[in-house]
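During the reporting period the student researcher (J.K.) took over the structure-prediction task from the postdoctoral fellow and processed the backlog of single-chain submissions. One of the processed entries is reproduced below for the supervisory committee.
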Amino acid sequence: MKNARTTLWQSTVPLGLCLAAASACGSGASDAPSNPGAAGASGSSPAGMAGAGSSGGQAPSSAAGTAGAATAGSSASGSTGVSGGGSLGGSPGSAGNAGQTGGAPQAGNGNGGQAGGVATAGAGGGAATAHFSFFVTSLEAIIRESKSQTGFGGNLGGLAGADAICTRIAEAAMPGSGAKGWKAFLSTTTVNAIERIGSGPWYDRNDKLVAMDTAALLQERPSGSTTVNDLPNELGVPNRAGTGTGMDDNHDTVTASNTQGKWDGGSTCSDWTSATGSGGPRVGHSWPAQSGKSWIQAHSAPGCEPSVALVQTGAGSGSGIGNGGGYGGFYCFALKP
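J.K. obtained the following structure tokens:
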């Protein structure tokens, strides 16, 4: 009997203390509400759904919201969650705070679930966007990927290798975007660049439209809202400004294509497997100049050898792929905007 009374006393004292201080045991302001609304989910993409209230307000606890933490750079924005309300007399909870980048979900206040917030900010120089689907490879990225101060030249490992370079650069700029199916805008003797990149639309790293479809893309300059006269790199920085001075002659961007995005019949550096020889591939201009305004077809590079030449020398000389004003950079497009 002594042990039974002791056990009963040990069980009832904490309960009494808890009832005497209700605010300390399941108040509406705590992270685990005592009222029957479910905890709201964080503002992660695609939608943070708030939990629904339990029937009659009788359940002792509520379920946590199902969405996880918003991940940095994983989406342009989280959709607004649906606020949960307690049924059969339960009052709805107030809207919760916005989901923060990389943060954990917050429980809803009061009886209802918390509205899903918006995921913001990402890696790189521009805002994180779910639409990110176009860039010019920056000089920095080409040097990093090639592990050479003179870049790849014309040997990109074929189209598959060039696509993989696009994918790695995109992923480094905005984590998660590497899964979008990146393609290099390059033609070979058997494949046309325009037929590799999907049907659009395409957006830059700053969520600005590059072109709605292939018809809008195949203009002298793409007819979008991005900086069409200085197409941006993977960080959303206009390519000329990306070198730091804004004055470097760095616009030669290899395509081996005519103005319709098809092989122009010239050099492809052995279909992007050779870094030797003169007579380089056709290049477009990431920003226009007197030597050509087309982003696809302006003139030919001097050769296929690795080179970085950012000083204005006209058409260039020698056999370096960048000797006319560039570094062997190329355009990358994602199949999934």
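The committee noted the following: Helices lie at 2-20, 139-146, 158-173, 214-217, 269-272.
J.K. will present the remaining backlog at the next meeting.
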